[in-house]
Amino acid sequence: MFSVEQLGLLALFANTFLAASILPLPSEPSILLAAALLNPYSVFAVAVVGGVLGALTNYYIGLKGLHSFLAKRSPEKERKAQRIFDRYGSLVLIVAPWIPFVGDPLMIVAGALKMDFRKFLALITISRILKTAALVFLSISLFP
């Protein structure tokens, strides 16, 4: 039988994975709530893994050209993401999780541009660690 914490962490993983990949869901509220109610270290680890795996899914979608078959596809957002990527380069992936509506298409663009996988993985992992750490810290500061 699953404990409440295990179910909460599973739901958090699902939310952070889907929010970082194919569904336009916000992950911030679930991370804040989970960190207030559950073990913050577990929340941090689960949210980072979910976010990174979601970003990898978008990278793969871009790499394989699958974005034209997905319901989430937004050519307008993809063009905007391409312009941002062109202007700021791959380091934009560090802040991508904080950019509403365009952050996820940036991962697709990185895949479509065949960005070096190791570089992509490093940048997106750093970005997810920074964002999740900030959210968990905010939560435990607000709800001690």
Walkthrough of the structure:
The chain is elongated and about 40 Å long. α2 (28-37) crosses α7 and α3 packs antiparallel against α7. The protein has 7 helices and no strands. The chain is an all-alpha fold and 144 residues long. The protein has one domain (4-142). The longest helix is centred in the last third of the chain and has 26 residues, at 117-142.
Strand residue percentage: under 5%
Rounded mean pLDDT score: 88
The helix-strand sequence is HHHHHHH
Radius of gyration computed on alpha carbons: 15 Å
Question: pLDDT under 50 segments (min length 5)?
Answer: none
Largest beta-sheet details: none
Kindly report how far apart the N and C termini lie: 29 Å
Q: How would the global form be characterised?
A: elongated
Q: Please estimate the helix content.
A: over 70%
Quickly give the structural class: mainly alpha
Counting DSSP E segments of at least 2 residues, the number of strands comes to: 0
Supply the number of structural domains. 1
Tally the helices: what do you get?
Answer: 7
SSE diagram, text form:
Layout lengths: L3 H17 L7 H10 L2 H25 L10 H14 L3 H4 L7 H10 L4 H26 L2
